[in-house]
Design goal:
The chain is α/β, with parallel strands linked by helices. It has 2 domains: 9-170 and 284-394, Zn peptidases (Aminopeptidase, 3-Layer(aba) Sandwich), CATH 3.40.630.10; 172-279, Alpha-Beta Plaits, CATH 3.30.70.360. Helices cover 40% and strands 17% of the residues. The protein is built from 13 helices and 14 strands. It has helices at residues 9-21, 23-35, 44-56, 101-116, 119-122, 139-145, 197-211, 250-271, 291-303, 320-324, 346-349, 355-377, 379-394, and strands at 60-62, 72-76, 82-87, 125-130, 154-156, 159-161, 165-166, 172-181, 220-227, 238-247, 274-279, 309-310, 329-330, 333-335. The strands form 4 sheets. The protein has a 6-stranded mixed beta sheet. A 4-stranded antiparallel beta sheet has the order 9-10-8-11, covered by helices on one side. The chain has a two-stranded parallel sheet with strand order 6-14. The longest helix has 23 residues, at 355-377.
Length: 405
Amino acid sequence: MTGIVGVPCDVLERVGAHLEEHRPLLVGLSHALHADPELGGEEVRAAQRISRLLGDAGFEREETPTDLPTSFCYRMGRSPMVVTVCVEYDALPGIGHACGHNVNAAAAIGAALSLGSLTDELDLSVKVLGTPAEETFGGKVTLINSGHFDDAALAMMAHASHHDTVGGRSLALCMWNVTFTGTASHAAAAPERGVNALDALVIAQTAIGLARQQLPPQSVVSTITTEGGSAVNVIPELARASIEMRSPSVDALQVIQARVRACLQAGAIATGCTMDITSVGNDFADLRQDATLATFYRDAMIARGRTVELSDAAVASTDMGNVSHLVPTIHPLLGYDVADARPHTAAFATYGTSQSADDAILDGAFGLAMTAARAAVDPAQRERLVDGATVRSLAPVGRSSSTRI
């Protein structure tokens, strides 16, 4: 392993040795999570496993929102240079850890434990946030609103993938459930008495389809019908759909939301139905990775012997995007051998406990730890990051922020 500019050799060596010493613990955590997948908001055993591990390592537990029971917060050190490590551990229905969150969690914990052993030497604090339900309602947004990121100098995590990259973006995301309500009637004997809710949904979906050409570039609007009537000879009284919207930026997402809402209203107006829109979970902002921290991570991973691409491509969506709008953030993709499989497939999940995945845990933990260490010892970066956290703590961004974009 080669040196890293700006990082004392003894720090580099100690982190490497610490990770090797804790390899069985970190790999064991990853495998335990993989064997016992839990859905977003229900990750009781995962949170307990990780909490015990942090408590045993000397981290002190702090309060988290009561309405987010599978979250947790642990801290070591009291320096204003607060390194916030985000831990994901939710799985997907039917296919388990097909997004590799078992690897995410273990790499994050590896970084936190390594940095925790250096809090005095580097004059930093390590804050470990358990962030549930990334796949569903977005627990990080709830933690933003409870003020848990207000003191963060930087925030970081690594995400399992089929390749190594850092600097990339994500798409802003929101999901709605819509219900059209009309009036049921016999479709043959008294159709004139009915108000057809399914017609309202068809008109709305048609309008959305026609509107796609005029939406901001790279926007995606997906719809499915979840209810459209119970019998062919009954005018449908209820029709329901789920709608997902993604766009490269929060501003563009707001344009899409306004356009889609108008299309839905068109269906209601044309048919005489009433309409109800319910947001599903928190809206996700686009991810904006900090360029300097991304470079630090890439340099550390190169020193570890890995090849890491610097990229600004937009990939999927994550509630880490919301964090990145408030705090200097990195969210690198951490690659391991998955053959031709891609995330969110059963095939991807089968590689989550492979030797390649296990090695990636330690490499990712090293990259994250070295990123924080380098930022802590670089006077200019330390000042930038601590000053930003000070400003946020004086005018907390979390408690004044909406969960909606």
